[in-house]
Amino acid sequence: MSKQYETVIGLEVHVELATKTKIFCSCSTEFGGAPNTHTCPVCTGMPGSLPVLNKQVVEYAIAVGLATNCTITQNCKFDRKNYFYPDNPQNYQISQLYLPICRNGSVEIETEAGKKSIGIHEIHMEEDAGKLIHDDWDDCSLVDFNRSGVPLIEIVSEPDMRSAEEVIAYLDKLRLIIQYLGASDCKLNEGSMRADVNLSVREVGATEFGTRTEMKNLNSFKAIARAIEAERERQIDLIESGEQVIQETRRWDDTKEYSYAMRSKEDAQDYRYFPDPDLVPVVISDAWLEDIRSRQPELRDEKMERYAKEYGIPEYDISIITNSKHLADIFEETVAICNNPKKVSNWLMVETMRLLKEHDMDPEDIRFSPANLAKLIHLTETKAINSSVAKEVFEQIFAENIDPEQYVEEKGLKTVNDEGALRSTIEKIVEANPQSVEDYRNGKKKAIGFLVGQTMKEMKGKADPGMINQILTEILEQ
Amino acid sequence: MDLLKLTAVELAKKIKAKEVTVMEATQAVLDQIDKVESQINSYVTVDREGALAKAKEVQKLIDDGTLTGPLAGVPVAIKDNMCTEGILTTCSSKILENFYPTYSAEAVCNLEKAGAVIIGKTNMDEFAMGSTTETSAYGITRNPWNTEHVPGGSSGGSCTAVAANECFFALGSDTGGSIRQPSSFCGVTGIKPTYGTISRYGLIAYGSSLDQIGPVAKDVTDCATILEVVSSYDKKDSTSVQREEYNFTEALVDDVKGMKIGIPKDYFGEGLDCEVKEAVLNAAKELEKKGAIIEEFELGLVDYAIPAYYVIAAAEASSNLARFDGVKYGYRSEDFDGLHSMYKTTRSQGFGAEVKRRIMLGSFVLSSGYYDAYYLKALKTKALIKQEFDKAFAKYDVILGPAAPTTAPKIGESLSDPIKMYLGDIYTISVNLAGLPGISVPCGVDSKGLPIGLQLIGDCFKEKNIIRAAYAYEKTREYVGPYDK
């Protein structure tokens, strides 16, 4: 490859909003449920049914728009996107084309190369489609409309990204903003966040964009990174061999690490967008906008700053803890009870992370209560249990959210703080191990480790190792 | 006493006074249907069993004092584009030949709550597209005044059912004149209220921004009463309007002294039948005699209403009718190979010619490259037409004119020339574009003995003005039905 190429990437990100009910009817958005049980005449496109906008959808869309520095369209409208497909019961999707709710925003991302602003062209609200299920047994297709009408926002970026690293940073930024707002859980693998990648390449220094393709079916950050790399290579190969890149939609197959064309621009459909006459324009008053603005929660960047000031924990810890809204919530709630940020941070950074990794879980999946973690910290601080017992107890908290005080009591794990009892046990151990005692006295100071271990064994682990050490040293030095 | 000659309000009073039972009234209507339906074909579905069962139930509720309203026990016919739970609802289309809705339209629910007894579903132009009730997949409906003639449309079946005493009143829908024009052709009274007055929830959409349900009955009193019962703010319909008041019957006063009535010159030019013109102007004179101030004026933009309407209504229809695809309900062709073939054959076989014509027209005007030139321009025209009416209503309480340029044409004459048929909507269409209320009241017959309709148009939310004017005019003449000759 003689020439230098630059990759130009823009993203269309669909996010399922966390409303309790659908965007145009009062059916539940809950996941699962037997097919077609969360449905009504509206979300199954029955003749004569009419949509009524769920206000919460507008509030979430505005909240995301404000957090991404967008201008809010205070008089926005819904349009119909017309196309035939059986998962779409009306054969049109209610979306926004002409007057999307948010426009002209940006978010700042940080990569190894430094900070960079990524433009957001627009954010619009729309409804999700149902799901087609092919029944191989009967050789027929069935439709489940439970997801039909689940609210989505589509965040369309400007073509401002130049690498997979930037794309991941941008997606992660969006995920964090939206999770912090509580507008969605943004899980790529579960489909509550979906990204389509628009990619083109051009020679470094060129001012015009190359022909772009759109890549669909990207279900993880890793898949996105692989797909970007593969598509970049594919387009450069085409150009280098004198061929042209065709504007088309491609589907990524992550197991084969290969994409194939779904449809080209020539057979792109004319969606015949027009304003939906069943819905009235959404008028967002200044007062409503201000109300939403005033209710905006603290976002990650603000939180990071505050943690540094308020808790004095290392920057690295802060970045890990705030990388999940859920984890940050646990941190703050635990600190509020035990007032020991450093210890809380340690439990989250070390043991929690280890267990998450071990069980292949996300921080979002943590189910233990801050109260139980606070109790555990209290037990260790008062030396009621030693650190190895604490780890064992924490595993139980992590797995089943047990009450550590009760657990320690029931299992009899409390440290024996009776110095007399401990001293007599140590004396017995010293008597029974003359060799080790002699070694120690001959300068092999390490021999004390064996004696501590023997004592701990005798005490069934319920002793404070510091105290054992102290008493042992006292006896041996005599 | 000839029960069938009673108006809906008169019948309800007699039922309340225990002079007539609900069962007797229902049976009388069913007998009349047996007698005339073979010549008229007002109904797609007559729900005999349902109606008789309902009659019994309603009678009990009247007897125990639960139902006291002005329509309790009165048999009603519903246009077949309104959903009725468990009763076949076809829109007079093959594509819904087997569609039994799981819910009832809000307007129908309001009637049922008031104790009206649903007799059946009336024939119409397929999906309300047409002005003659000849495009129905279930046969044409004939005008009871002369069965060689059409009843008008698209609510033809509702109007003939009222005129031929096959019900005591009916619900129709009006997108471009579909209540007022057939009311005029059949010698009955019909109101299209202000857009947003009656919930569209459960009305199978044709042109969503123009569709309104309205009453069809023998006189103005009935229409005002029905409108009062059926109207409601409905949060299931985003375009429904919370009105300050719904007491339309308060306007049933024989007094038009000082009422300012404007006559648009543009409604009396070329294309208007001489006999229709004379009858309408005579009606204006009657109102003048009663003290109304009549004045001619220029409305403007009248010629632009029809093209604007056909662009907007067809555009919305092309999208509204997309859901009829053979996947979820209704007709599905048996002759297909794969999904797209299923869509194509189902829709080719399921829709009639006029519906296809409008779907194609609508798809065309919305397609990329044409949207601005057609659809957007039509929306702008619509706004300008509304402004013309605003100017007129700054001066007048009511606008008076014909409901249609002619009396009912002969069967078969209109469909051969769709453009001519479209032009027949000239006086009614702008009312829908501007969202205004309009009423059609009988004002005589022509030399062929066919009824002529007077149209009165009011400003938005001013139904009371047109009801008052129509009521005062109605008092100057007797109601004559097709069988009273």
What does this 3D model show about the protein?
The complex is a heterodimer of chains A (478) and B (485). By secondary structure, chain A is of the alpha+beta class. Chain A has three domains: 5-288, no CATH class; 298-411, no CATH class; 419-477, Arc Repressor Mutant, subunit A, CATH 1.10.10.410. Helices cover 40% and strands 21% of the residues of chain A. A nine-stranded mixed sheet of chain A has the order 2-6-7-10-1-11-12-13-14. A three-stranded antiparallel sheet of chain A has the order 5-4-15, with no helix packed on it. A two-stranded antiparallel ribbon of chain A has the order 3-16. In chain A, a hairpin with a 4-residue loop joins β13 (248-253) and β14 (258-264). In chain A, α2 (164-181) packs antiparallel against α3 and α6 packs across α8 (341-358). The model of chain A has no long low-confidence stretch (mean pLDDT 92). Chain B contains 15 helices and eleven strands. Chain B starts with 7 loop residues before the first helix and ends in an 11-residue tail after the last helix. The mean pLDDT of chain B is 96.
